[in-house]
Amino acid sequence: MAFSERVSRLKSSLIREILAAAQRPQVMSFAGGLPAEAMLPQVDWQAMPVSMGQYGMSEGEPQLREALAAQARALGVPCEASQVLVVSGSQQTLDLAAKLYIDKGSEILLEAPTYLAALQIFQLFGADCLTVPLEADGPDLAQLRVRLEQHRPAFIYLIPTFQNPSAVRYSEAKRDAVAALLDEFGVTLIEDEPYRELTFDDGNAAPIVGRLRKASWIYTGTVSKTLLPGLRVGYLIASPDLFPHLLRLKQSADLHTNRVGQWQALQWIGSEKYRQHLSELRDFYRGRRDDFQAALQRHFGDLADW
To answer: How far is CA 137 from CA 167, 170, 172, 241, 251, in A?
Structure first.
């Protein structure tokens, strides 16, 4: 069979293997970011208009885009609804960005370690993945500067809030410094924040994209960790110079994100019931974290550090 050259770089998804292992009844997996089923909200479909079964706009439902833009502005992301694109989970953002920027041999910059499924996409398109090591509060700034001086990558992909898999959360100082470097070298930032709303201590810093003055950027999030991952609804917000290209790539990929999932997401985002749900989620996960810490201390305190 004569497949494309790209298929030779296609690897099986380690994320899917992690999810498959987690389905085994004897396994309690801490490897994947699976929401606790006990906290998946009860949803109502009765009021959904029949029109949601029809084709929709490639950009996404207008009301949902407005709600997502308002949510982002509250975080310090400078945007309007016209910069919001509803995607099929934030995973699609990475696919669209890869199509926009990566040719075989294109250099991109990543944290070390980084999100496995992002690596899968970037390597599929033939990227040469350069890395910057993480410290306790964010990337090693000296090494980041060296990478930017020597390579001028097509983009840098960062997960500044509860980085996957390291769990590092960038400090305010590191976020400011990263933004200054990207502005200095004119490198596009792709900022991925799937876990932002699950912080337990109200210590979240504003996104890096809100600190940029010159560089282009893509900011992406999802409802998969806070509502239902099965909805497959995420979003990207892009600087005005990038948005038209990402929209056309979205159109060529799948026309538009499923409207049924978008409708359900719109019933929650920005509402009082959503705020209450997020509060309950944080309490639940905080309790689990504390129980896990206590169990580790009890059973492994004399064997390991964490």
So the answer is: 10, 5, 9, 31, 38
Residue among 149, 155, 162 nearest 187 (CA): 155
Q: 55-266: what fold?
A: Aspartate Aminotransferase; domain 2 (3.40.640)
State the pLDDT confidence band at 200, using cuts at 50, 70 and 90: confident
Please give the Cα distance from 35 to 104 (Å, whole number). Answer: 35
> In whole angstroms, what is the distance from residue 129 CA to residue 105 CA?
9
Are 156 and 187 spatial neighbours (Cβ–Cβ below 8 Å)?
yes
Give 148: exposed, middle or buried? Use CB within 10 Å, 0-12, 13-18, 19+.
Answer: buried
The 8-class DSSP code of residue 155 comes to E
- Helix/strand/coil (H, E, C) string of 63-117? HHHHHHHHHHHHCCCCCCHHHEEEECCHHHHHHHHHHHHCCCCCEEEEEECCCHH
Distance from C-alpha of 88 to C-alpha of 294, rounded to nearest angstrom: 38
Distance between CA atoms of 69 and 301, rounded to whole angstroms? 45
Taking residues 69-86, report their average pLDDT.
97
Which token pair is 76? 């310090």
Bond from prior residue into 165 cis (ω within 30 degrees of 0): yes
Q: How far apart are CA 270 and CA 70, in angstroms?
A: 9
Backbone angles phi, psi at 251, to 5 degrees: -60, -40
- Please state which of the ranges 25-34, 123-132, 215-224, 254-263 shows the lowest mean pLDDT: 25-34
144: which 2 tokens? 């980041």
